[in-house]
Design brief:
five-stranded mixed sheet; elongated
Length: 289
């Protein structure tokens, strides 16, 4: 406190010591005293906290930072990490606005049965067994950019994604094509789950799934929680990236989203549901098992 008064407010050491009823010699002895082992440990922790926080583009809170510290060899609990973050004004900059939307299912196309249920996710025991897909939109100064993704339910990896200035069926086909090209897939054992949106129920998409031997599955009408894993991904994408940016063009948004998925979300963003591993790491671990 004396040092803070003396340096921050220009108050003389004598007056500071008198005010706080401590001796000058005691104050100077304290200044020369080496930091305690606990303080030294906190300083080391703080450096790594800042490093992990910055690497996440300042989106990680104390749970993920704690996991990151443990991965670096620190023995630490979340309460201590949260306190150090609070004392040093290190906060998650995630923009906490996101509304789960339901898809307009008002069409006459046939729909597939609901073969995959969200509560069944834990029964999926390997990659490339169930892909869940959905479409969202990103606002830009040029207009909306639409993004279609397919997620591997086992690894939470975004295996396929495509974007366009429209919501035609081709965006789904491009996203699926990317997934099949990059993943080691046994197609006749793969379930592609989605909502009942017109694009997924379209004859063009249905025929392509049939041609590839992929099994179609669709959510219940108007129930967005049947596709909760992809909605969770969209929540992360929008609160950690999209809502923090003002995209001037669709191309700018497209490049930023591609980069976020391929250089951050898949290879580096850790998930509590994956034992605090990133999707790519969890996928590789499952292959080695």
């Amino acid at each position: 406190m004396v040092r803070e008064l003396n340096t921050a407010d220009g108050v003389a050491v004598n007056l500071s010591c008198d005010t706080l009823q401590i001796s000058r010699s005691g104050f100077y002895a304290w200044l020369k005293r080496p930091p305690s082992a606990r303080a030294a440990k906190n300083n080391l922790l703080l450096k790594d906290i800042v490093s992990i926080h910055e690497a996440s583009d300042r989106t990680y809170g104390s749970p993920r930072i704690t996991a990151g510290l443990r991965a670096r060899g620190h023995t630490v609990n979340e309460k201590r990490v949260a306190r150090l973050m609070r004392e040093n004004a290190i906060v998650s900059e995630v923009v906490k606005k996101f509304k789960v939307r339901t898809t307009d299912c008002d069409h006459s196309q046939p729909v597939a049965p609901r073969l995959f249920k969200t509560e069944d996710a834990k029964t999926v025991l390997a990659p490339n067994q169930v892909y869940v897909g959905d479409i969202t939109y990103i606002r830009t100064n040029e207009g909306f950019l639409f993004l279609a993704v397919f997620m591997d339910i086992f690894t939470r990896k975004i295996v396929g994604h495509a974007s366009a200035d429209n919501m035609r069926t081709e965006i789904l086909l491009d996203s699926l094509s990317m997934a099949l090209q990059r993943q080691d897939v046994n197609r006749d054992q793969l379930i592609a789950h989605s909502d009942r949106g017109a694009q997924y129920a379209s004859e063009k998409f249905s025929k392509e799934l049939h041609r590839l031997g992929i099994i179609a599955s669709m959510s219940r009408k108007g129930n967005c929680w049947d596709n909760a894993h992809v909605e969770s991904f969209f929540h992360s994408l929008k609160t950690e990236l999209v809502y923090r940016r003002n995209f001037k063009t669709r191309e700018e948004a497209k490049n930023a989203i591609f980069d976020w998925i391929e250089t951050w979300y898949n290879p580096r963003r850790i998930h509590s549901s994956l034992n605090y591993m990133a999707p790519n790491e969890y996928e590789e671990l499952s292959k080695a098992a």
